[in-house]
C-alpha cells in the first residue's frame, strides 16, 4: 500500500496526517493556527510539525499534498488568494517541497474534500454531486460525470459568494450580502456577539442551542434557511444526485437540517430534482486532510 503526507490548512486549525491510498489516516496531529497571520510563519509551523509526525510515524513517504483555504492554482503550486487572511500569490508548493524534500502538490481545500468523498467516501458510486464546506467560510466543489469540474479559470463552485441579502454585510470578495457572511461559522459568531455582546465560538453556540437556548437555536435555524436557499440554486443549475455537507459547522447538521431541507424544498424546482439527497459527509472533519493525501498519490 502507498502512503503520503496530507496537510489541511484551515482557517483556525492546521491538520497534518499520514494517509494511505485507501484514505485511512494513520497518524495525525492538529495545531492551533488561529493567531498566525503571515504565510512565512505558517510554513515554519508546517515544516516543524510535519517533520515530527514523519519521524514518529516511520512510513515510506515521498509525496505531500496540501489543501489550501482559498483560490489555488494547482498547476503552478501557488496559493493565489484567501480573502480572510489576505495571503496572496504565495508559492507554497515549491517552498514546502524544498523544506520537506517531498514531491508536493496543492489543491483548494473544498476540491480536496470532494475528491476524498468521491474516492473513499459516500460518493464512490455517484457521478454527479456537489460538496459544500461550511466552516469559517463557505465553499463548494462539484463532480460532473465523475470528473471534478474546476471551471475555465480553476475557481468554480464559489457558493459562499452568492448574494443572499441585498445591500448586506460587506465581504472580503468585494461583494455584499454573501452567503458566507450569513451562514458560516464566523457569521454565526458575529451575529451572536452583536445580539448578546459575548464572544462564543460557533461550536459553543451550537452547544447552547442543543441545551435549549432559544436565541442560539433560532440562529442555527436561520443558518439552515440561508444554506437551503443557496443549495436550491445549485440543484436547479446542476441537477445533481447528491449534496454533501462538510466543514466544522456541518458537524452540527442535526441542529439545522430541518430548516435547511424545508427552505430547499420551498425554493427548488422539485419535479426536476425530486431524487436529490442532502447529507453530512461520512469523512467528518478529516475530508480535506484525506483529500490532500490522496491528490499526492494520483
Ligand atoms: Zn463574498
* Sequence stretches where pLDDT stays below 50 over 5 or more residues: none
What's the Cα radius of gyration? 19 Å
User: What is the makeup of the main sheet?
Assistant: 5 strands, mixed
**Which fold name fills CATH's third level, the topology of the largest domain?**
Nucleotidyltransferase, domain 5
Query: How would you classify the helix and strand content by structural class?
Result: alpha/beta
Query: Which outline best applies?
Result: globular
Percent helix, as a range, is 25-40%
Number of strands: 13
Describe this structure in words.
The chain is of the alpha/beta class and 298 residues long. The chain has two domains: 3-113 and 286-295, Nucleotidyltransferase, domain 5, CATH 3.30.420; 125-282, Nucleotidyltransferase, domain 5, CATH 3.30.420. 38% of the residues lie in helices and 23% in strands. It contains nine helices and 13 strands. It has helices at residues 39-57, 92-100, 109-120, 180-183, 185-196, 202-210, 214-238, 253-267, 287-295; strands spanning 3-9, 13-20, 25-32, 63-68, 71-73, 78-81, 88-90, 103-108, 129-134, 138-144, 147-149, 242-246, 277-280. Strand 10 (138-144) and strand 11 (147-149) form a beta hairpin. Helix 1 (39-57) packs parallel to helix 2 (92-100), helix 3 crosses helix 9 and helix 6 packs across helix 7 (214-238). The model has no long low-confidence stretch (mean pLDDT 96). The structure holds zinc ion. Zinc ion is lined by residues 161, 171, 173, 175, 178, 180. Residues 161, 171, 173, 175, 178, 180 line the site of zinc ion.
